[in-house]
Amino acid sequence: MGDHSHGSPNDPGTVAKAGPGTLEAFQDPGLPPHRKRLADVDPRAAKRAERQVALLFVISIIGTLSFFIAYFGLGRSESIAEIRTQNMMLGLGTAFAMLGIGVGIVHWARALMPDHEIAESRHEIRPEKDRADAESMIGEIIEETGIKRRPLIRNTLIGAIALAPIPAIFMFRDLDRTGATAGSIVERLRHTMWDTGMKLTRDPSGTPIKASDVQLGSAFHVIPEGLMDTEDPLNEKAKAVVLLMRLDPEKMTISPGREDWHYNGIVAYSKICTHVGCPVALYEQQTHHLLCPCHQSTFDLTQECKVIFGPAGHALPQLPITVDSEGFLVARSDFQEPVGPSYWERG
């Protein structure tokens, strides 16, 4: 028989249980005592912290101004050394512009804004009273930030925030150097240099391609004839580059109106992924799938490059093609829809 002096068959006594009145002995300890910071008790420390926050905002302003100096002052040279210097200054200027604001706000909150903890009980939802309470809370928050009584912080913060977004505006505007309006930019993106009768040529050699060169399962990276002779070949290529492949016509699903867009199973599709514009470069011969290596968007070649996996928004645009009298592959027209990512305006 075991020793049951400290328990019983139903209660072995191995676990201590709270007896009557025990719970009253455990009271809510409440919040720990608030420890004041140096800036809370020493006006000189508070003033010093205020100057530090303002200095960080000024650093942000200087970073933005450095961006403008590099952008406008060093942007006219074609020297590799100066281009590298410009890129470094652009990056550093943007970094200091963002870091100055971020670190300044954090230091402001840690050193000057009230840091005492509070606990509030839940209450009934009363729309009118809650609205008044919300207005009161917003007023208290503004008062606690000290922004009204600290004009040095307020003014430098306004200057930093006002200047910080301007570099982004110039950088996005610089994507187009022709001075065109936004509408004409979108219209220019809607079209490529492909035109009726333009030969399909190998990338990058520019050698024309005959239909007899394209075998079942083969894939060619293709550019328009004469691309390298244009004023801006890289931008033209970014819009016009296509993939050329040959399928068994019996395996192809062809939409009404596209019956003559291929030649004996030879098809051409835009190489620009419709997700974010990465080059679709991987062709799975057995499954007839095209794969974008950036985010794994997958297009089914037998279904007119319909999206079957991944984040791409729509199928790859098809380039209508045929052959000329010499047997070379040529375009019937430009793409019938805009190429590129789904966030472009599309018609």
Give an overview of the whole structure:
The chain has two domains: 38-117 and 125-173; 191-331, 3-layer Sandwich (Rieske Iron-sulfur Protein). Helices cover 35% and strands 11% of the residues. The chain has helices at residues 38-41, 43-73, 80-111, 127-145, 151-163, 166-173, 182-189, 233-240, and strands spanning 200-202, 219-224, 242-246, 266-270, 282-284, 289-291, 298-300, 306-309, 321-323, 329-331. β6 (289-291) and β7 form a beta hairpin. The protein starts with 37 loop residues before the first helix and ends in a 16-residue tail after the last strand. InterPro entries: QcrA_N (IPR045603), Rieske_2Fe-2S (IPR017941), Rieske_2Fe-2S_sf (IPR036922), Rieske_Fe-S_prot (IPR014349).
SSE map:
Blueprint: H1 38-41, H2 43-73, H3 80-111, H4 127-145, H5 151-163, H6 166-173, H7 182-189, E1 200-202, E2 219-224, H8 233-240, E3 242-246, E4 266-270, E5 282-284, E6 289-291, E7 298-300, E8 306-309, E9 321-323, E10 329-331
Antiparallel strand pairs: 1-2, 2-3, 3-4, 5-6, 6-7, 7-8, 9-10
CATH topology of the largest domain: Rieske Iron-sulfur Protein
> What is the second-level CATH architecture of the largest domain?
3-layer Sandwich
Quickly give the structural class: alpha+beta
| Strand ordering within the main sheet | 1-2-3-4
Tell me what portion of residues adopts beta-strand conformation: 5-15%
Number of helices: 8
Quickly name the level 1 CATH class of the largest domain.
Mainly Beta
Determine the fraction of residues in helical runs and give it as a percent range. 25-40%
List segments where confidence is low: pLDDT < 50 over at least 5 consecutive residues: none
How far apart the termini lie comes to 90 Å
Q: Can you count the beta strands?
A: 10
User: Can you summarize the main beta sheet?
Assistant: 4 strands, antiparallel
Shape: elongated
Order of SSEs, N→C?
HHHHHHHEEHEEEEEEEE
How many structural domains can be distinguished in the coordinates? 2
Q: Can you say what the CATH homologous superfamily of the largest domain is? A: Rieske [2Fe-2S] iron-sulphur domain
The whole-angstrom Rg is: 34 Å
Mean of the pLDDT scores? 83
